[in-house]
Amino acid sequence: MKKWKRISGLLLTAALTAAMAFSATAESRKKITSVSLKITSDMEIGDDMDTSQIEVETSSEKYHVDSYDIMNSGFYWTEEDVPQIQVYLAAEDGYYFSLMSSDVHLDGATYVTATKPSGMDSTMLKITMDLPSMASRMSELETVHFGADGIASWEPVQGAGKYEVRLVRNSTIVGGTQTVDSTSADLGYLMTKAASYTVRVRPVSRVDWESKGKWTDSGAVYVDSAAAEAFRQANRTPGEWIQDQTGWWFRNPDGSYTVSGWQLINEEWYWFNEAGYMMADAWVESGGQYYYVGSDGAMLKSTFVPGTQYYVDSSGAWVKQ
Fold first, then answer.
1. How far apart are CA 305 and CA 282, in angstroms?
2. Residues 198 and 145 sit within 8 Å (Cβ to Cβ)
3. Which of 21-35, 100-114, 207-221, 226-240 has the highest mean pLDDT?
4. For labelling, which of 38, 96, 169, 253 has a CA lying 20 to 30 Å from the CA of 109?
5. DSSP designation for 242
6. What is the pLDDT of residues 130-179, one digit of tens each?
7. Strand partners, 180
8. CA-CA distance, 178 to 53, in Å (whole number)?
9. CA distance 236 to 82
10. Are 150 and 186 contacting, i.e. CB atoms less than 8 angstroms apart?
């Protein structure tokens, strides 16, 4: 009986020593109170669902990315998909996770949940997140073709609803930034001076118009003085501008003039009031829409009205936000 008591005492001592060591180890571990991740993804509609198109990174020395999985069903990405992934983080030796949802910071994804994986301790953390929707993703515009006829064209970009177009004369943008719905733009009316011209185009998301791709430049086209004159003649509207004591009006070849309406003159739209005079620096209500004519009388397009936060689209109509 004494021998058993001695052995029992030794076992108890060993157990207490092990428990104290474990307690000391647990108390010496440090909390991870926040997590920051950067997520990049380059999948496109029609691509196979593959984690190789996703990268999850962290610069922390307290934890590392253990693995991640795609949670969507199916075999390839469709326009309706919002990619969702689960990322598993592992704490480094001497650390454990102790944080709230507000302590998870994601760049390139939207937080959904953060939990301890089933059957695991607090040294592992599972974060579920949504990546940008497939509908909002755009491919890159690869090539812009630009000819001596002044027409620029390009292939459709997946995910784009519109395109912004700029004409550059030597190193100066002329005509501002235009927004078009098609995959071409006729810019000959702006090529009225002898110079070297290039075209810059970038896609605009059809889901979020503030999301825009990178600019792609065309090759240069040189316009000599003869070609510039030809462009001027081709885009000239018959008639003449006349200024009197009241203002400016436009006389057509037959002597008539526009009243209370729009007239397209040399590729620009002008509004004439009930007396036939051109309006300038003013809002114009027409067809249930509001338009703005600038200081030269031409209707503004694809820009903000000077001195305001009001934006007019490629048709000139005010975009109500």
1. 10
2. no
3. 100-114
4. 96
5. E
6. 999 988 888 889 999 999 999 999 999 988 989 999 999 999 888 778 88
7. 163
8. 34
9. 50
10. yes
Q: Which residue has the tokens 């008539």?
A: 256
- DSSP 8-state code for residue 48: B
Q: How far is CA 59 from CA 17, 41, 229, in A?
A: 38, 18, 60
- Order the strands of the 151-154 sheet from edge to edge: 144-146, 151-154, 184-186
**Tokens 């733009």 sit at which residue?**
185
From its phi and psi, is residue 101 left (phi > 0), alpha (psi between -120 and 50) or beta? alpha
Structural contact between residues 151 and 128, judged by C-beta atoms closer than 8 angstroms: no
| Residue 29 CB neighbour total at 10 angstroms | 15
Q: Is 16 helix (H, G, I), strand (E, B) or coil?
A: helix
Of residues 82, 87, 31, 98, the one with CA closest to residue 57: 87
| CA–CA separation, 122 and 117 (whole Å) | 9
Among residues 270, 288, 290, 289, which one has the least CA distance to residue 280? 270
Concatenated DSSP letters for 188-199? GGG--SSEEEEE
Question: What residue has token string 């200081």?
Answer: 295
Q: Is the pTM of this model over 0.90?
A: no
What confidence tens digit (pLDDT) does each residue in 265-318 have?
887 899 999 999 999 999 999 988 999 999 999 999 989 999 999 999 888 999
Strand residue runs (E) in 58-123: 63-70, 84-91, 95-97, 104-107, 110-115
Which token pair is 199? Answer: 């075209």
**Would you state the structure tokens that stand for residue 6, as one six-digit string?**
């001695």
164, 202 contact by CB (below 8 A):
yes
Closest residue by Cα to residue 127 from 140, 110, 108, 142 = 110
| Res 248 pLDDT > 90 | yes
